[in-house]
Write a structure and sequence with these properties.
It is built from ten helices and 14 strands. The protein is of the alpha/beta class and about 300 residues long. The radius of gyration is 24 Å and the shape is elongated. The two termini are about 40 Å apart.
Length: about 300
């Protein structure tokens, strides 16, 4: 059952810019959804609207069955938000900042929960430090701790690992995986597509305020993924023989390898014919390698396809 339900969501700003163009999206309870899109695609506007920080022009959103407009208090109480911008009172101690966020939602003081959140985010030894004394990565961890202080059922992570070193980033994703086990629904935006590929259950791609695709990660990569065959040659070739000139085939600049892109779902990949044509052209193979398309390849392709359709 969808925990977050978005129907026909539109957002038009005063200047006429349409940031969201009738977005429809359902997010299941306990899943990790990666929301991918280039800068200005509408990711932050979508998150801000769901969280009640931006008023929609049209459409509806419910969180846990609560309408974000009619029943905004109940809806907002279910949501934890980690924004892109680091904006925390610099002279406040870490533990106090996290505890204060819990109080904002009218919850009783719970030192044990606050200490547990700090522990899970490796902030225990910084609990009594002032925010101004922390590194950028640690400040971002404090933002996550503040978002978890009121025990939300949904956690929005808007570019949460920007400016965070590799070690801290890995630890954060371990925390995200643990929250998922606890049934927390997690929606993240990220420029690190390899992270989405590693931890997301489903992928949603947004561009120019429109959702281009929503699909389970594994199914998406299987359906849209392509493979690249790299044929390393024993001797340099100055040009491709006429028998090898075809779509998806290219000779490297150094003339020592040929790449062939093919569809894994096609009835015939064309590899057998390629190898026969290579032999017939007198080209000797030294080695063969294959590479599966990454999520980044698929993402770039989808966005480029929309750009081409818009220009047509």
């Amino acid at each position: 059952m969808a925990f977050i339900k978005i129907d026909g969501l539109r957002k038009v700003y005063d200047g006429g810019f349409e940031a969201l163009k009738g977005v429809d999206l359902e997010i299941e309870e306990g899943e990790i959804l990666a929301l991918l899109g280039p800068n200005g695609a509408g990711k932050t506007t979508l998150i801000s609207t769901i969280c009640g920080m931006t008023t929609p022009t049209a459409g509806s959103v419910t969180v846990g069955g609560h309408d974000i407009i009619r029943d905004w208090r109940a809806a907002r109480s279910l949501i934890g938000l980690v924004p892109q911008e680091i904006n925390i009172e610099p002279f406040t101690e870490v533990r106090r900042a996290v505890a204060f966020s819990r109080g904002l939602f009218g919850l009783k003081r719970n030192d044990a929960h606050v200490d547990d959140v700090l522990r899970r985010l490796s902030l225990t030894d910084k609990a009594d430090s002032k925010i101004m004394q922390l590194s950028g990565g640690m400040k971002r961890r404090v933002l996550i701790a503040k978002a978890l202080a009121h025990e939300p059922r949904v956690l929005f992570l808007d570019e949460p690992t920007a400016g965070v070193d590799v070690e801290l980033r890995k630890s954060m994703w371990e925390t995200v995986a643990e929250l998922k086990k606890q049934g927390v629904t997690i929606i993240l935006t990220t420029h690190y597509i390899e992270e989405a590929e590693a931890i997301a259950d489903r992928i949603a791609v947004i561009n120019k305020g429109e959702i281009l695709l929503v699909e389970r990660k594994d199914a998406l990569m299987k359906r849209l993924g392509r493979k690249r065959l790299v044929v390393e040659l024993q001797h340099k070739a100055d040009a491709l023989p006429d028998s090898l000139v075809r779509d998806g085939l290219a000779l490297s600049e150094d003339g020592l390898s040929i790449t062939y892109d093919y569809d894994t779902q096609a009835e015939r990949t064309g590899i057998t014919r390629l190898l026969q044509d290579l032999s017939g052209a007198g080209l000797t193979l030294r080695d063969l390698q294959t590479r599966q398309s990454s999520l980044e390849d698929i993402f770039v392709g989808l966005v480029a396809e929309q750009e081409q359709e818009g220009a047509a």
